[in-house]
């Protein structure tokens, strides 16, 4: 993969809170802290995998990063340029450079539009090309994602889930982005198709020097595609490290529990490995526990865990962990 030392994306203390009203006529008096002070960076040409259980805030983080949701506070830097305060007009050139591939290839494509219209739409919105150049570009994109030219005049319902996701990827690539948020791009697909889509994303990254934020709850796929991995729990990052380091030297009790649930193909190794069963459910982000958000499910919790929220600490080589008992 194309790798440099330059950060394409930097996120600093990003927060996204949603106001929640109790009833129709009541004033907003509670906040759902979907993303609560997260910081990370992604180098150009690399992939940051973001993992965690459903509802941990990873999708909200991705959407806020693209300003599909307005951040509550914090900084979003793209090539060092802060994006969080730009007006919609000022943001337009950056929208072209930062795209998203959505989780559900069934819902994310307009069923009334042909494949050509879907892929051509961003070309029109950003006034990239028209006429023959536009048709040529659509043909090129369709073939780039492994579809055929005669698919251009067909409608989304005529395709399989994997093919629809390829259409979504072609749409994202139409504007020649530098950065793509891949939001659970394989979770709605058959297992047999998932690897094909991930391999294609890797090939595209290599070819065009793309940078990805890859959001998923599939830890084995995240390991395969990511250079760096961040683990989120209840709106916060609890551990972040290079992928190999995280998977071989995980430190946070939540990361250990998540990884212990990943199936191991080798039966001998699988027998020796210990599965850690998490107790209870994820607490509501409307009413998170005090101190460490994981304390209600953590087998290692000590008194401090119920009072003080642990900050991310660098354990060396950029491996950061937020836990009172890890030193
Ligand atoms: Fe468990 Fe305490 Fe560490 Fe939180 S800070 S993960 S509760 S040991």
Automatic annotation (TrEMBL):
A GO molecular-function annotation: ATP hydrolysis activity
Which PROSITE patterns does the entry mention? ABC_TRANSPORTER_1, ABC_TRANSPORTER_2
Which residue numbers delimit the ABC transporter domain? 9-259
Q: Do you know which InterPro entries this protein is assigned to?
A: AAA+_ATPase (IPR003593), ABC_transp_ATP-bind (IPR050319), ABC_transporter-like_ATP-bd (IPR003439), ABC_transporter-like_CS (IPR017871), Oligopep_ABC_C (IPR013563), P-loop_NTPase (IPR027417)
- Does the UniProt entry include the keyword Transport? yes
Q: Which CDD domains match?
A: ABC_NikE_OppD_transporters (cd03257)
Pfam families in the cross-refs: ABC_tran (PF00005), oligo_HPY (PF08352)
For this UniProt record, give its keywords in alphabetical order, as a comma-separated list. ATP-binding, Nucleotide-binding, Transport
A GO BP entry:
transmembrane transport
Gene3D superfamilies linked: P-loop containing nucleotide triphosphate hydrolases
Similarity comment text for this entry: Belongs to the ABC transporter superfamily.
NCBIfam families reported for this sequence: oligo_HPY, PRK11308.1
What name does this protein carry? Dipeptide ABC transporter ATP-binding protein
């Amino acid at each position: 993969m194309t790798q440099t030392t330059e950060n394409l994306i930097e996120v600093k203390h990003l927060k996204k809170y949603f106001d929640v009203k109790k009833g129709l006529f009541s004033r907003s008096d509670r906040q759902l802290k979907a993303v609560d002070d997260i910081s990370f960076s992604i180098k150009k040409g690399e992939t940051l995998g973001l993992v965690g259980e459903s509802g941990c805030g990873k999708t909200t983080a991705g959407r806020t990063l693209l300003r599909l949701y307005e951040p509550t506070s914090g900084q979003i830097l793209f090539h060092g340029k802060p994006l969080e305060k730009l007006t919609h007009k000022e943001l337009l050139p950056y929208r072209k450079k930062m795209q998203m591939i959505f989780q559900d290839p069934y819902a994310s494509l307009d069923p009334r539009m042909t494949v050509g219209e879907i892929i051509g739409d961003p070309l029109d919105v950003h006034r990239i090309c028209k006429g023959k150049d536009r048709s040529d570009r659509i043909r090129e994109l369709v073939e780039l994602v492994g579809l055929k030219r005669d698919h251009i005049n067909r409608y989304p319902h005529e395709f399989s889930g994997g093919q629809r996701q390829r259409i979504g990827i072609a749409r994202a690539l139409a504007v020649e982005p530098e950065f793509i948020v891949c939001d659970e791009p394989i979770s709605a697909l058959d297992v047999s198709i998932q690897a094909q889509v991930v391999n294609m994303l890797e090939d595209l990254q290599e070819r065009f020097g793309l940078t990805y934020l890859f959001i998923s709850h599939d830890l084995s796929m995240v390991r395969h595609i990511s250079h760096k991995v961040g683990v989120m729990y209840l709106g916060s990052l609890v551990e972040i490290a290079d992928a190999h380091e995280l998977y071989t030297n995980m430190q946070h009790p939540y990361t250990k529990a998540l990884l212990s649930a990943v199936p191991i193909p080798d039966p001998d190794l699988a027998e020796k490995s210990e599965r850690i069963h998490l107790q209870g459910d994820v607490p509501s982000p409307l009413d998170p526990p005090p101190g460490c958000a994981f304390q209600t499910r953590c087998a290692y919790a000590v008194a401090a865990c119920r009072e003080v929220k642990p900050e991310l600490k660098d354990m060396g080589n950029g491996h950061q962990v937020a836990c009172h008992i890890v030193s």
